[in-house]
Amino acid sequence: MAVNEVELFIPCFVDQLYPQSAFNLIKVLERLGVTVRYNAEQTCCGQPAFNAGFWDEAKQVGEKFLKDFNGEKPVVVMSSSCTGMVRNYYYDLFQNSVLHNKWKALRKNTWEAGEYIYKFTPWTNLQARFPYKVTYHDSCSALRECHLKKEPREILARVEGLELVEMENVETCCGFGGTFAVKFEPISVGMTEQKVQNALATGAEYLVSSDWSCMMEIDSYVKKHNLNLKVIHLADVLASGW
Q: What 3-state DSSP class applies to 177?
């Protein structure tokens, strides 16, 4: 018996570059008794255009999002940055518009994936197994837009065999920041280097996060410098061992 039925939103970069993590999220949700619906018409939340200053274009994409998801069922989003966009920045796009109330209804029922698992599913019974030493990276969006900190850590603490160690300056940005990494590449690379070095100093075998955008930045640095650290999404960890 399903504990709930949800609509799943997969960010553009996950869809194109890391689809296996999305499939693993579905696997985890279904094991936890959640019925997952995927609207194949979905595209983007509009965040890239919004952050680049193209608000008219972002509004057009946001209107499509509001058409695809009405908020009657929980919308589970595999990215805290997309979640934050819908919850916080759609206000700038749709205030005093005919879509304002529709956005307000959707805002109340849009959840980052780990957040939804923590709040609405029997995740303590998942019985995942991941026998490795890991460190966790908090994305800026998760911390500051979705106010998530304890949730992923408490979930990871119940994964059999997993040892979680905290890195120094854990709440510092990884250097991605969307177009920031392109416009200010030297600064971005320096920030990523610091994040990776802090992760390596813990002796962790894996860096875990809930945002593939940050992980993409970190993973590219790790691979370029041939460092002994693997990057993995929270959903991939939770889909392990069963």
A: coil
Number of C-beta neighbours around residue 33 at 10 A: 13
**Bridge partners of residue 129, in order along the sequence:** 160
Domain ranges of the chain: 4-119, 126-238
- Judge contact between 145 and 110, C-beta under 8 A: no
Give the residue from 194, 196, 177, 101 showing the smallest Cα distance to 139: 177
| CA torsion through residues 14, 19, 22, 28, sign | negative
Which element (helix H / strand E) includes 190?
A: helix 185-201
Stated pTM of the model? 0.92
Q: Are 168 and 156 in contact (CB under 8 A)?
A: no
Which tens digits make up the pLDDT trace of 99-108? 999 999 999 9
Q: What is the rounded distance in angstroms from the CA atom of residue 108 to the CA atom of residue 141?
A: 17
**CATH fold of the domain at 126-238:** Rossmann fold (3.40.50)
pLDDT tens digits for 57-97? 999 999 999 999 988 899 999 999 999 999 999 999 999 99
Task: Report the alpha-carbon distance of residue 233 to residue 213 in Å, rounded.
Answer: 11
